[in-house]
Specification:
Elements lengths: L18 H13 L4 E3 L2 H9 L5 H12 L15 E3 L4 E4 L2 H6 L3 H25 L5 H9 L5 H10 L1
Antiparallel strand pairs: 1-3, 2-3
Helix pairs in contact: 1-3, 2-3
Length: 158
């Protein structure tokens, strides 16, 4: 699976947080399912840095991401990025918001499809309703009677 990464994190309140915070955050956003992710600091330390990576650095990054951030663009959970909900279980606070954001290509395809459906509905509306007086004129024409349209056309040519 993959997680979306947005450039706004590089010019927001995470700036200057350090490599470990960005590495842990990217790991979490990539591995999250429905906004939840399991992170064992010892395992993640090995994944990110091999046998020489200190798990305490992962713990520090997790603690940083759990802190309130008054400068955060999001005010949910006081600007926290994650909330610990179990021994290794974390909830990504803004996961739902960012999950709804589409890529540019997905957005364009969605808009094309919506526009196509709208045009179909408009065509159906135009085809289904006769113009005012049209039913009466068609009935007269079918009965062989002169219609108001014929009279108008004859007086125009006269």
């Amino acid at each position: 699976m993959y997680g979306k990464s947005y450039e706004s994190k590089f010019d927001g309140s995470l700036v200057g947080a350090g490599f470990n915070v960005f590495a842990v955050w990217d790991y979490m956003t990539t591995k999250a399912r429905n906004g939840y992710v399991e992170v064992n600091p010892e395992v993640l330390a090995f994944i990110l840095g091999g046998k020489n990576q200190d798990p305490a650095e992962v713990v520090e990054a997790l603690e940083f991401l759990q802190r309130p951030d008054p400068k955060s663009r999001s005010k949910l959970e006081d600007g926290r990025r994650i909330v610990k909900e179990g021994e290794y279980q974390y909830r990504l606070v803004n996961w739902e918001h960012y999950n709804r954001i589409r890529t540019e290509e997905e957005r364009r395809e969605y808009n094309r499809e919506m526009q196509r459906q709208w045009r179909e509905r408009q065509r159906a509306k135009r085809k289904s309703k006769p113009l005012p007086g049209e039913v009466v004129e068609v009935a007269k024409y079918g009965a062989g009677e002169a219609s108001a349209c014929d009279v108008e056309v004859e007086s125009f040519h006269a």
